[in-house]
TrEMBL record:
Binds mRNA; thus facilitating recognition of the initiation point. It is needed to translate mRNA with a short Shine-Dalgarno (SD) purine-rich sequence. The keyword Heme does not apply. This is 30S ribosomal protein S1. It comes from Yoonia ponticola. Residues 24-90, 108-174, 195-263, 280-350, 367-437, 454-522 form the S1 motif domain. The lineage of its organism: Bacteria, Pseudomonadati, Pseudomonadota, Alphaproteobacteria, Rhodobacterales. InterPro entries: NA-bd_OB-fold, Ribos_protein_bS1-like, Ribosomal_bS1, Ribosomal_protein_S1-like, S1_domain. One of its GO terms (biological process) is translation.
Length: 558
């Protein structure tokens, strides 16, 4: 019997040792009851302990625990003053959590957790027993001002760093978002095809275009693809938050960049340009842009033409286009050329107005008197401003009848108002020749009057020279050379004449260019002789030439 008693005691001790776990280890226990927010757990060998229910809760969730459940807890002390075991779910969980987290870290797997506190530079995250640090920069893709709505929510995190010895864990929420965004982006892009029409929301507007959200992925709508017409700034057409229809123009599979277009969904106005804008037809357009070389004129939305600086004005040459037209001005233009391949229309502004030289030629035919302001004085004449914003030129030779033009041009000043006669209008060369001297009539022509070549006129001797004599005919000077003084060589002596003598001479030449008369006494004598022969001479009478001349001269003297 004693034997049996000893055996029983030994067995009892054995079982006691077996069932008494050592302090500082994780043990299994059974939930006996739940009261006042605590679970009463039997950890074996008549040892019970209490643990707050919240220690059993997963991050961001309520604890799900019922009597009869088996749980693992950490035995801190076998018995305390109240005779209870001091147990902790928290510490058991921490040990358990570290094992689990180290495996997840090694396998690069996500872990669930909940943000529960704010610390300097970031937040604290409960990873189901282990506390991790979430840096502020790792909360979201974009900086987050208020993390309040994220607190206490169960969500996935990526472990960036772990140090069990120091108890350090650093996690990121951003890495997960970026990954899911990349997946979402890849999925959205995978569903898009070039040429497809989609709806998008305008997210951002820049100088060169707009970013459009196509449902998790952004596409760029360039300003030149918004409309067929010229768009100076995207804000003219779009507003942020607006939903628009766009076409996918291009998808870059490597960079995942998507190019979008709006105008591609509208008819290209260029398809009808040639039929609508025939050569030399005139149209009203609006000036959209001015450059050094011309002005762009919008004929209709999407169709613009260039008026080259040389086609802007008949009269304003070498002037900046901005001095002739202004932006937004309505102008009438003529179609000069269309190049559909280059989508270019050449327009003319001056062609819609009459050529001012043609108009001037009609209004002021040659010989008409005009008046204008001296605009410029050059070494070869005066430029005079005329009607129609054009200039006429008075050449030096057209300034005066008397003397040289060089001598009188100094009498004129810029700004003087002068009268002149239209001498010639050359529309092709855009040139108008004027004459100031023509206003007084031509004194040469007036003096000569009805005088023709061969006329006999009476002149007065004004000067005797060795080579001949100077004579005056109604205020006009002429010179008779020695050889023209007589038909008789012996009589060709200038001394034979005296100043003031009246002499009959024959007009041999009228030169209106040099404004000179050619005169000869000799020619008069020869003409008279010929006439006398015709009048008095006859081959039948047998009279000699001397008799005839004598009779003719006698008749002349009587």
């Amino acid at each position: 019997m004693a034997n049996t008693m000893e055996e029983f005691e030994a067995l009892l001790n054995e079982s006691f040792e077996m069932d008494t776990p050592s302090e500082g280890s994780v043990v299994k226990g059974k939930v006996i009851a739940i009261e006042a927010g605590q679970a009463i757990i039997d950890v074996g060998y008549k040892m019970e302990g209490r643990v707050d229910l919240k220690e059993f809760a997963n991050p961001g969730e309520e604890a799900e625990l019922a009597p009869g459940d088996t749980v693992e807890v950490f035995l801190r002390q076998v018995e305390n003053a109240r005779g209870e075991a001091v147990i902790s779910r928290e510490m058991a969980r921490r040990e358990e959590a570290w094992d689990r987290l180290e495996k997840a870290y090694a396998d690069e797997e996500r872990v669930d957790g909940a943000i529960f506190g704010r610390v300097k530079g970031g937040f604290t995250v409960d990873l189901g027993g282990a506390v991790a640090f979430l840096p502020g920069s790792q909360v979201d893709v974009r900086p987050v001002r208020d993390a309040g709505p994220l607190m206490g929510l169960k969500q996935p995190f990526q472990i960036l760093k772990m140090d069990r010895r120091r108890g350090n864990i650093v996690v990121s929420r951003r890495a997960i978002l970026e990954e899911s965004r990349a997946e979402q982006r890849a999925e959205v892009i995978g569903n898009l095809t070039e040429g497809q029409e989609v709806d998008g929301v305008v997210k951002n507007i820049t100088e060169y275009g707009a970013f459009v959200d196509l449902g998790g992925v952004d596409g760029l709508l360039h300003v030149t693809d918004m409309a067929w017409r010229r768009v100076n700034h995207p804000s003219e057409i779009l507003t942020i938050g607006e939903t628009i229809k766009v076409q996918v123009i291009k998808i870059n599979k490597e960079t995942h960049r998507i190019s979008l277009g709006m105008k591609q969904l509208q008819d290209d106005p260029w398809n009808a340009v040639e039929a609508k804008y025939t050569m030399e037809s005139t149209h009203t357009g609006r000036v959209t842009n001015i450059t050094d070389y011309g002005a762009f004129v919008e004929l209709e939305p999407g169709v613009e033409g260039l008026v080259h600086v040389s086609e802007m004005s008949w009269t304003k040459k070498n002037v900046h286009p901005g001095k002739i037209v202004s932006t937004s001005q309505e102008v009438e233009v003529m179609v000069l050329e269309i190049d559909s391949a280059k989508r270019r229309v050449s327009l003319g502004l001056k062609q819609t107005m009459r050529n001012p030289w043609e108009v001037f030629a009609e209004q002021f035919p040659e010989g008409t008197e005009v008046e204008g302001e001296v605009k410029n004085i050059t070494e070869f004449g005066l430029f005079v401003g005329l009607e129609g914003d054009i200039d006429g030129m008075v050449h030096l030779s057209d300034l005066t009848w008397e003397g040289r033009g060089e001598d009188v041009i100094g009498d004129f000043r810029k700004g003087d108002i002068v009268k002149a006669k239209v001498a010639e209008v050359d529309v092709e060369k855009e040139r108008i020749s004027l004459s100031i001297k023509a206003l007084d009539g031509d004194p040469f022509a007036e003096t000569i009057g009805g005088t023709k070549r061969g006329s006999i006129i009476t002149v007065e001797v004004t000067k005797i020279e060795e080579g001949g004599i100077e004579v005056d005919y109604e205020g006009m000077k002429s010179f008779i050379r020695r050889s023209d003084l007589s038909r008789d060589r012996a009589e060709q002596r200038p001394e034979r004449f005296g100043v003031g003598d009246k002499v009959d001479v024959r007009v041999t030449n009228i030169d209106s260019k040099t404004r000179k008369l050619g005169l000869s006494i000799k020619a008069r004598e020869i003409a008279e002789e010929k006439e006398a022969v015709e009048q008095f001479g006859s081959s039948d009478s047998g009279a000699s030439l001397g008799d005839i001349l004598g009779a003719a001269l006698k008749g002349g003297d009587e």
